[in-house]
Amino acid sequence: MTLLIKTNNICKKYNSNINQFQLKPTSISFEKGKIYIIKGRSGSGKSTLLNIIGGIDRPTSGTVFFNNESFYDLSDNKQSEIRNKNFGFVFQSFNLIPELTAKDNISLPKHFNKNININDNKINRIAEELGIKHLLNSKPFQLSGGEQQRIAIARALITTPEIIFADEPTGNLDNLNSQNVAKLLIDLVSNRNVTLILVTHEENLIKHQHTKFFMHDGELKLEEGEDDA
Ligand SMILES: Nc1ncnc2c1ncn2[C@@H]1O[C@H](COP(=O)(O)OP(=O)(O)OP(=O)(O)O)[C@@H](O)[C@H]1O
């Protein structure tokens, strides 16, 4: 088992006029090639946790280790490099650039880091796996939600990341598309030995070998029947 990400008592406090929220101290480990599912009610703190682990949002206190280095103590350049090269993100709202074709959206990581190798071969291969090869010249507005999310998944995988963070990736899709896209994502990461942290409510996709967490009022708990994380 190779440890990829580990958090040590990460905590986040939001104090605004509108609301107060606290992610309670969380210590958790993520291993290479494993799939982690996070469930929980709206507002319980799932995205807050995912953003901290994914290097997008610094915790109020505590440490996130990526490959044994304290991520938020690295330089801004190094943090961006890791986010761009080693992490992949899939969001509920797809986050595609409307002016770009599907192909250019998939190539986007190269725009941020010239050292990332993305070529036509690689794009065609992944597009084929995702069943979107015929859509590469289309723009997002010409595509259905399920097709757009497949493009976003291709963009997340094209850099051959070590870990994918997926925050309710099927939240904007109808039932059938939702099942298909979530299954595709799980199959693709499993075939590549990529770690997946998936926020989802798709109960029927969750398998016994996945590690399941439940977030309640900012507190993350391992679901019963699991070993300690
Ligand atoms: N930048 C912010 N400033 C202030 N409060 C915030 C901020 N981001 C999130 N919150 C608050 O933190 C709490 C947790 O939000 P979070 O988005 O993590 O929940 P969630 O479980 O992902 O919800 P959902 O399932 O609806 O996406 C909420 O009460 C939210 O309003």
What's a concise summary of this model?
InterPro entries: AAA+_ATPase, ABC_transporter-like_ATP-bd, ABC_transporter-like_CS, MacB-like_ATP-bd, P-loop_NTPase. This protein has 229 residues and is α/β, with parallel strands linked by helices.
Indicate the topology.
Blueprint: E1 3-15, E2 20-31, E3 35-40, H1 46-53, E4 61-66, E5 69-70, H2 76-85, E6 87-91, H3 102-106, H4 108-112, H5 120-130, H6 145-157, E7 163-167, H7 175-192, E8 195-199, E9 211-216, E10 219-222
Parallel strand pairs: 3-8, 3-9, 6-7, 7-8
Antiparallel strand pairs: 1-2, 1-4, 4-5, 9-10
The structure holds adenosine-5'-triphosphate.
Adenosine-5'-triphosphate (ATP) binds at residues 14, 16, 19, 21, 40, 42-48.
Organism: Paenibacillus sabuli
Domain ABC transporter: 5-229
GO molecular function: ATP binding; ATP hydrolysis activity
What binds here, in terms of ligands, is: adenosine-5'-triphosphate
Helical stretch tally: 7
Q: Biggest sheet, open or closed, and with what strands and sense? A: 6 strands, mixed
Radius of gyration: 17 Å
Q: Helix-strand pattern, N to C? A: EEEHEEHEHHHHEHEEE
CATH architecture of the domain at 3-93 and 162-222: 3-Layer(aba) Sandwich
Name the strands of the widest sheet in spatial order: 6-7-8-3-9-10
Quaternary organisation: single chain
- Total beta-strand segments: 10
The amount of beta strand, in percent, is: 25-35%
